[in-house]
């Protein structure tokens, strides 16, 4: 219910932007953090076009891409001021906000093909496992993606018990982290865990891996055959994660970058799809308040 209320809140362009004004010529290098969860080679390849566009548009001498080994690497980079920009999940943004509410500002979020600004955590199992619903997985192994993932940890941690009636560590024989969404999905596909939780738009056809999310990425790469998998659980709608900008670079850059990304789906649709990993309608302005429900849930469930 909290997620639905968050998603129904009005999203306005006039975000509360803080920080010292900075002129374009003051920023020679632009540093982008890329969340862990997919192999490094794919992440660097997918973000290469974005780095090129940013250099051309703003005249940066260098655009540096930092594909962190895990989500926390990007979170710490933003908190420590060694990264200027990143796209976070809602729980990752909550982690930054809890530690320092003034560290970053969310400027935009993705918009699904149906116009919504939310997505789902889904539970996937092999079809030959005999698991058809999450109730069938009692006494089995549940795979999580990353401790700072929204759909890969926070949401299934708090929402699966509402279906099973038991905490996950009591319902399942074992729960384990598998080093990001890609590794987690592949762990289920290879039979190393019985159910894996994954991020997904939940829109479109299952046979395509839906329209976006890690499942879609793995289907597009030919890494998994969706006919061998089955969806056994789906969460309530989750707020799409934000594109965040470090406040220290100034509110002039917040506006410049928001404008740049709003235009990206039109200026280079293939680049936009590569960065976001699937089919989206575009970006939409977002306010920090959009994530209040997730911040509260994270505080109560796992702390900072």
Characterise this structure.
The chain has 304 residues and is of the alpha/beta class. It folds into two domains: 29-113 and 240-302, Periplasmic binding protein-like II (D-Maltodextrin-Binding Protein, domain 2, 3-Layer(aba) Sandwich); 118-238, D-Maltodextrin-Binding Protein, domain 2 (3-Layer(aba) Sandwich). The chain is built from eleven helices and twelve strands. The protein has helices at residues 2-8, 40-58, 71-80, 90-99, 150-164, 168-171, 181-189, 214-221, 251-267, 269-276, 292-301; strands at 29-34, 62-67, 85-87, 104-111, 118-126, 141-144, 174-177, 195-200, 229-234, 238-239, 242-246, 282-285. A six-stranded mixed sheet has the order 2-1-3-11-4-12, sandwiched between helices. β1 (29-34), α2 and β2 form a beta-alpha-beta unit.
Describe the structure using short key phrases.
single chain, 304 residues, alpha/beta, D-Maltodextrin-Binding Protein, domain 2, 2 domains, six-stranded mixed beta sheet, 11 helices, 38% helix, 21% strand
Proportion of residues in β-strands? 15-25%
Series of H and E elements: HEHEHEHEEEHHEHEHEEEHHEH
- What's the CATH architecture name of the largest domain? 3-Layer(aba) Sandwich
State the low-pLDDT regions, or none: 1-25
Helix content: 25-40%
Find the count of extended strands (DSSP E, 2+ residues).
12
Mean pLDDT: 91
Strand order of the largest sheet: 2-1-3-11-4-12
Structural class comes to alpha/beta
User: What number of structural domains do the residues give?
Assistant: 2
**What's the story with the biggest beta sheet?**
6 strands, mixed
- Based on CA atoms alone, the radius of gyration comes out at 19 Å
Q: CATH superfamily membership of the largest domain, which one?
A: Periplasmic binding protein-like II
N-C termini distance: 22 Å
Query: What's the level 1 CATH class of the largest domain?
Result: Alpha Beta
InterPro entries: PhnD, Phosphnate-bd
Organism: Phyllobacterium trifolii
Keywords: Signal
GO cellular component, one term: ATP-binding cassette (ABC) transporter complex
